[in-house]
Amino acid sequence: MAEEVLTEEEMDALGELSNISMGSSTTALSALLQNKKVTIEMPRIEVINRSQALDDYERQCILVHINYSKGLEGGDILLLKPTDVMTMTDLMMGGDGTNNQGEVSDLQLSAISEAMNQMMGSAATSLSVMLNRAVDITPPETDTIDVESIKIFENIFKTPDKDMVKVTFRFRVGDLIDSTMIQLYRLNFAQNLIDIFMAQMKKNEEDIKKAQEREKAGN
Length: 219
What we know:
Blueprint: H1 8-23, H2 26-32, E1 38-40, E2 44-49, E3 60-70, E4 74-80, H3 82-92, H4 106-131, E5 136-137, E6 141-146, H5 150-156, E7 163-173, E8 177-186, H6 187-218
Antiparallel strand pairs: 1-7, 2-7, 3-4, 3-5, 3-6, 4-8, 7-8
């Protein structure tokens, strides 16, 4: 575990932000997966050393790199299990979701990239509301990475910081997937996101207080 660099209040804020934005994206993903019920539950927030980023995966994982083109500067990474990717893409291609053995193909990578584009685009729309600013993403970059190749991962996710913020969601699709999805943030990006969100929440509270005071004065 890395040295704690976010306060409990900041972690709670990021958890709320992540839970609402990712939770709102389940409808978009469900529509691509033959309307199977998709749930993404309240996440666990940790600050980790970058070298620990792939520790939850045995051999390979699917890396989805999200970049923001409007409203936020930077991006984040989603990590998915290959079997989960193959189950989802099998559903997208008209299967029953059971064709999830072997290696993830280029076609499946392309399909999951489109699914994550729809899903994270929906999450960005939710962020727009919570942050009171337009937020948009560029099409995600998707690849398969060997867990032992942490140096390759570090080259992909370049940052001078040794610490990262790890957000772990419980992720379920019908009765086919009961797994985890991990979102990774650069520390400075996560801190900036938290600051914007907390400032907006404070402004909302002040606006409500002023409205209540005006209502009292009117009475």
